[in-house]
Amino acid sequence: MSRDNPHASHAGRRLVAGVPYLWLLVFFLAPFAIVFGISLSKARFGVPPYEPLLQNGEVMAQWGNYAFLLEDPLYLTALLNSIQIATTSATICLLIGYPMALGIARAPDRWRSPLLLAVILPFWTSFLIRVYAWMGLLKNEGLINSLLLALGIIDEPVQMLQTGFAVHLGIVYSYLPFMVLPLYATLERMDLSLLEAASDLGARPWRAFLTITLPLSLPGVVAGFLLVFIPAVGEFVIPELLGSSRTIMIGKVLWTEFFNNRDWPLASALAVAMLLLIVAPLAWLESMRVRRRGAAR
Amino acid sequence: MANGTSPANSAPGARPPVLSIERASRRFGDVVAVDRVDLAIGQGEFFALLGESGCGKTTLLRMIAGFELPDEGRILIDGQDMSRTPPYDRPVNMVFQSYALFPHMTVAHNVGYGLRQEGMARSERDDRVAEVLSLVELSALAKRKPHQLSGGQRQRVALARGLAKRPKILLLDEPLGALDRKLRERTQFELMALQARTGTTFILVTHDQEEAMTMSNRIAVMRAGRIHQIGPPRQLYEYPNSRFVADFIGSANLLMGEVVGMEAGVVRVRLQSGGQTVAIEVEAGVSFPTGQSVTVMVRPEKMEAGRQAFGGPNELTGEVVDIAYLGDLSIYHVATAGGIKVQVAMANRQHRQGKPLERGEGVHLAWHPSDAVILTE
Ligand SMILES: Nc1ncnc2c1ncn2[C@@H]1O[C@H](COP(=O)(O)OP(=O)(O)OP(=O)(O)O)[C@@H](O)[C@H]1O
Ligand SMILES: [Mg+2]
Which of A157-171, A273-287, B293-307 has the lowest mean pLDDT? Predict the structure, then answer.
């Protein structure tokens, strides 16, 4: 009597599989459509600060905002700057995170959980507070400069806050766990007898790492890199608090357009353009990867 | 006839040893996985390490490969002390039980991996890879990745990869364990042919005595980290040196007794249960003191059971308590008058035997004095 109804379980499975899509629809596609709509309208004073797309049954869409993005070099500069900062930071995260992840994955069993916990421990404090803490550490009369002065290593404070260095440092510090966790996941899964086989066939440890461990951990490298790179490109808080007015990142420009200039349509156009320029190539890359792996199966 | 007193470690004949292990031990905490092992293996031998699970076979093999370092003792390969040499500098290769094929490389790259580490030139490497792949009949699959292969094909890739560097010794850790029965039997013969063709020394780890007997020319029987006996399959079967080996290789009837006399190469033993005296032929020069406790070992197929008395020097009586009909053979479980259980294996030849024995029948048991072995351990 209590046998599972195959149709019901099938439908149930579909429902569960559908949840992520529903999530995407409600929290990504719908807002994206709204933002895209705004980007096609004109700015005005009032609430909302843009003209409705539909006026007297006529669609008033226009691409002027996008054209303006191309006209003013500010936007392109900001975008390239952001990509450069995000790339450098993600690379530094990779260089620091890979040995960390490898160390944790190869640590004795009883050490792994505490070490992993240590990696995600900073998340238990507010992100904002941690960035403020860096301000306290980096400023001219901050902890680091005071210490270096007291030790006689430097004669006058080194300008660290409000530099590109501070922005990179902040991003690397904040996003490092996003690099370590996916790397750990792939490295921990790796069959260690492969390394023994490599060693047996004459590969010294470093060669074995380059030919076996590294290639097999590439999915983790890609995942970790994207998890750092994507949010870092749009980062606003870190350049705002740790950077100078000369560190122009796209997130800051967006903020200025939305809240200082109140030009919602232009800001929306910027958001859409940024999404297409960064996410679309990555999505395409990912789909190529999946297709290639599918073909190899 | 020989008996159980031959030395545990006989030299590998005229062939120079390619591997010598001298009193090597390996401990893991309290566990002594390998315990003072002495072993000499000759060039070109097909050698098997046989023992039940956990007896230390894999550990010993890993010590030869260099993955485990001996806590004491030495390991010499081709006369050179390699006890502390890391695996990548030893002229031995291993076929892992799980195969450990590199999943991101093609079959050809897997096989050529060791040659690349050696720095062999590309063209020479390609030739060698092609040669080894044709040896294991995998040439057609060179471009495939491991996950596109069947279990048997993967096993052959692992074998080819181990052979590609022409190692002095190829170590095989239960290489057939993951194959089904049919494929395993076929692969056994392929392995033997391959070993004969390449002339490489093979050391095979297995817990399957049939596999060890089929493939190897010498077997070391291990138990709890120690080697109990080393010898060709026939010697281990016919002349085991201990009750453990007798019982582990094939099945054995073990009869406890006490030596009561010796004359002209024949030892007389009074059995503990039943009190009959039996005679066992021994090799010239071997002697046992009167009163010594010994075990008489007779293989089931060397015993005969019949309705009439045989009238020989070794005769017991008993009752058939169980019969296992195996087609070619029947195994008769007989409880003797003295209360011991023995097994008798007899070929099913109707015309000679007449009516087969039945359960509950009283029977006479007999064996020839040269078909029994005296064990003291
Ligand atoms: N790395 C290790 N750490 C602790 N104990 C180990 C380790 N490797 C092996 N042992 C122990 O050493 C003993 C011998 O193990 P080994 O793997 O050599 O057995 P084996 O004969 O190969 O058994 P099997 O037929 O099951 O593979 C076992 O008791 C095992 O638990
Ligand atoms: Mg084993």
Answer: A273-287
